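Course assignment 3, question 2. Fill in each field.
Student: A.L.
Task: Predict the tertiary structure for the chain below.
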Amino acid sequence: MNKPLIRTERNGDWLRFGVKVQPRSSRNQIVGEHEGDLKIKVMAPPVEGAANQALQKFLAELFKLPKKDIRIVRGETSRHKIVEIRGIEAEKLLAFIPQITK
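Answer field:
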């Protein structure tokens, strides 16, 4: 299986990348890559920030980081978001994706 190409960049201590969120899913999961962004399904509806909170919680649990180390920097009302995570390197993010999407 080829490694998905997720565009990432450093912003100081933070790793920045795009996420396409699909709310109201049957479970929280990474489903792969979508146009250079990480595609993630969350169970929460896109109402009053519930899907954003679910996304932050899911990523924090996935990477074993506190929620304060996950932030949405753009796209709070859109399905296309820019997310930053403090405490991981791009290699860890990219290496982790195939394990989930197989």
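Instructor remarks: The two ends are 8 Å apart (CA to CA). The domain at 8-101 is CATH 3.30.1200.10 (Conserved Hypothetical Protein Mth637; Chain: A;).
Grade: pending
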